Amino acid sequence: MLVIVDYLLIAVFLLSALLGLFRGLIKEAISLLGWILAVWCAVRFGATVAEMIPSLADGSFIEIWIARIIVLFAVLILSSLLGRLISIAIHQSGLSGTDRVVGMVFGMARGAVVVSLVVLMLDAAGFDGDPWWQESKLIPYAAPLAERLGAIAEDSVELIKDQVEDVPLP
Question: What is the value of pTM for the model shown?
Answer without folding.
Answer: 0.71
